Each structure stands twice: as C-alpha cells, then as structure tokens.
C-alpha cells in the first residue's frame, strides 16, 4: 500500500519497500532493526504516516526530527510523595525493553500540535487519565541530537517540552497503569 505524506520536506509517494531502500541508501543498518531494543521499519513508517516525525537529508546524513512532551507525574499521600515511572515494555513478539527515562511519560507530538494539548492526549492514551490544566506546570524545554536507540544508526533531533503534574485521589491507582498497544504493553508503577 502506498502513502502520500511529508517526507524530506516534500510530498512523496512511498511504501514500506521504498522506505527500506531509501534508508539503505544512507548505509543505515536496517537489518538490526526489530531486534533487541530496536523498533522495526514498520514503526518508523507509522511515525512518518501519523505526522510524529520527519526525515531530512542534511548534507548526506539522514536525520529524524521529532518534537515531544515529557512529564514527571507525582501523587502525595500525606508526607509521602510518589513518582510514576515506566517499569517496562513487553512486545507481542516476546521481547522486553527496560528503559531508564527522565520522565514518567513522554509522547511524540503531531506536527502543529500545542505542547500542553499533546501532553493531555498522551496521558489519556497511556494511562487513561484526563488532566485539568491546573494540574500541569511547564518547565524548561530541551533540544538535543543523538543516535536513536529505537532505530540504530539513525541520527535523531529531539525538541522537548518538559512538564510536571500531580494526580488527585480519583486519578491515583496504587497498582499502577498499563498502556496496551497493538505491538506492546507498557507498564507504569509508583516509586
């Protein structure tokens, strides 16, 4: 199936095989993708189709650009303050991925999306929780560039918006939360 999306700053019709060949033209080790912690080419295709990333050729180097929100989530029980953390991801193919993340949750933004609205959407999708604006505080943003753990060999430019929020009693689940996606489950626990 072919798709028409923004790719390399112009509209291009492509399919999975075209994308794979394009990635190989930059000598990316696509044969390593989908093994260990790495995601598959289908995952990248999905990011491109949904508007969560853009691929840009910068002087012969392919760069994946993503904008995201991240949030540290807290809950206060009297004197005790708990922080929500991602415990693990379990893929349907049996792989388990454990990541040490700076934030409780993170969500890739869609092109043109407001950061606070993206955060609220992400928390609803991942945890099933609806946030009020008064629960959210925005912090300092981040910008960095590094090779992707998810897509080995692919340089990624990250632009992040940092938030904190505190859950109220009705939003707090002492057993944590599970986000179920078609290819994996992500487990969140309180520490």
Notes on the protein architecture:
By secondary structure, this protein is α+β, with helices and mostly antiparallel strands. It has one domain (3-190): Nucleoside Triphosphate Pyrophosphohydrolase, CATH 3.90.79. Helices cover 17% and strands 43% of the residues. It is built from 3 helices and 12 strands. The chain has helices at residues 16-24, 41-50, 115-127; strands spanning 3-7, 10-14, 54-58, 61-77, 80-91, 96-97, 105-108, 136-138, 142-147, 155-166, 177-180, 184-190. The strands form 2 sheets. Strands 3, 4, 5, 6, 7, 8, 9, 10, 11 and 12 form a 10-stranded mixed sheet that branches. A two-stranded antiparallel ribbon has the order 1-2. The model is unreliable at 1-6 (pLDDT under 50).
Could you provide a short overview of the structure?
With 191 residues, the chain is α+β, with helices and mostly antiparallel strands. The chain has one domain (3-190): Nucleoside Triphosphate Pyrophosphohydrolase.
Task: List the keywords.
single chain; about 190 residues; alpha+beta; Nucleoside Triphosphate Pyrophosphohydrolase; 10-stranded mixed sheet; two-stranded antiparallel ribbon; 3 helices; globular; disordered N terminus
